[in-house]
Amino acid sequence: MESLIIVCEKPDAQNALELAADAGFGGAQTWLEEDVENCEIPAASLFCVAIKDAKKREKIADFLRKGGAKFASIIHPSCEISKFAKIGEGALVEPFCLVSANAKLGDFCVVQSHSLIGHNAEVGAFSNIGSHCDITGFCKIGEFCEIEDGAVLIPNVKIGAGVRVVANSAAIKSAKDFETIGGIPARKIGAGK
Asked: Which of 38, 79, 138, 141 is the most interior residue, by most CB within 10 Å?
């Protein structure tokens, strides 16, 4: 049986192991992000890159992939995932999330606890969805986005690549690539990532 190795930052190591155990990956181990390039990639292992910074997550995933690594998506068993949803490679879905019918989570995206991904919504690769977010139906979130805790996107909102949606904001209009939006209703308040 393949073992699981979670690449994470030191303060998150215990939480990562507990999430993996809850998701059925008993015996998982952690590698700290700063040690990855000095480790030999075991052939019979799966990896999950649980680093908050999306660019670091991409760099580590690329390094591991070049070394022949395979990736697991970790989905906490308390989550409700539609059988019609698509979950990308290396995704991480924390406790008490809902991913509705025909929703798509991109590769290596993170959905933090108590968040909702509505029907037909799409979350781009390497994006982070904070805790208690509501991404309603038909929303589309680009790659490398940061949707902070408590943010709400109403139906059909399109969020471009590299956009940051500030915590507790309500996005009722679409945002262009690399913007920061915030407030109720959310408006452009600066440059994105």
From this structure: 141
Residue ranges of domains in the chain: 3-72, 75-183
Residue 39 pLDDT class (50, 70, 90 cuts)? confident
Write 83-92 long-range contacts (CB < 8 A, 24+). Answer: 85/117, 88/125, 90/47, 90/48, 90/49, 90/61, 92/19, 92/48, 92/50
How confident is the model over 69-92, as a mean pLDDT? Answer: 97
Q: Which CATH class is domain 3-72?
A: alpha beta
Q: What are the structure tokens assigned to 75, written together?
A: 């989905």
Say how far residue 140 (Cα) sits from the centre of its chain: 14
CA nearest to 28, candidates 48, 46, 5, 47? 5
Render pLDDT for 167-185 as a digit per residue (tens, 0 to 9).
999 999 999 999 999 999 9
- Count CA atoms closer than 13 A to 29's CA, side-chain side: 7
Residue 175 DSSP code: B
Verdict on whether the full-model pTM lies above 0.85: yes
Sequence-distant (6+) residues with CB within 8 A of 104 are 85, 86, 88, 121, 122, 123
